[in-house]
């Protein structure tokens, strides 16, 4: 039982009674002491205990672990309202990963079983959220006349407390793109159909025969953190020039190109 100024698990006293029809313990409806046959009418009463609703019991509990999973034995901080703050004790140098889970105790003193962690990365004492999960199934295809088609998926399974909401695509010819230095080639909001957001975009034109280095990322606009998939290299197809054909008097003549 939790310690609290008010008991978090108070039970109503005396117990309430709930009339119930059943065949567990029978009492003759005619008041006689003899048990009736199974087909005879009878009444039965169950005694039940009810929790008392108490809105003052609602409390948010923060569990956290520094460079470790949270220990759900004792919360590191509690609050009756959101948001609330807590300052972790960091190791020397101020570099750590702090894993945080918030649970709520409701007005019936029932605690949620949330296990999803928010991970905050501290570098020299300054904390930032980790980047979102990177996109998957990144593919590049030839389109027409030097254009390329870029496809990818971002999957929000619900276990990521701070998911991405924006697609970003970098394309650079001959070398890997450098985010923050090279400009973003394409950016758009994610549209979700269920837990997935799909990207299909045609970019270009680029010179046929060159190598396009494509970098696709999932951006969280609230703090500009990006989860990047590995760079995909794609050699653009060379457009072949076919010989021209001319018709004269019902015969076909081919005009050969230069050797």
The strand order across the widest sheet is 5-4-6-7-8
DSSP helix fraction: under 10%
Number of helices: 0
Question: What would CATH call the class of the largest domain?
Answer: Mainly Beta
Task: Look at the structure and name the CATH superfamily of the largest domain.
Answer: Immunoglobulins
| Helix/strand structural class | mainly beta
Shape annotation: elongated
How many distinct folded domains?
3
Structure write-up:
The chain has 259 residues and is mainly beta. It folds into three domains: 1-51, no CATH class; 55-129; 136-235, Immunoglobulins (Immunoglobulin-like), CATH 2.60.40. Helix content is 0%, strand content 42%. The protein is built from no helices and 19 strands. The protein has strands at residues 16-20, 27-28, 42-48, 59-66, 77-79, 96-105, 118-123, 126-129, 136-142, 148-155, 166-173, 186-189, 192-193, 196-203, 211-220, 225-228, 232-235, 244-248, 251-255. It is elongated and about 105 Å long. The termini are far apart.
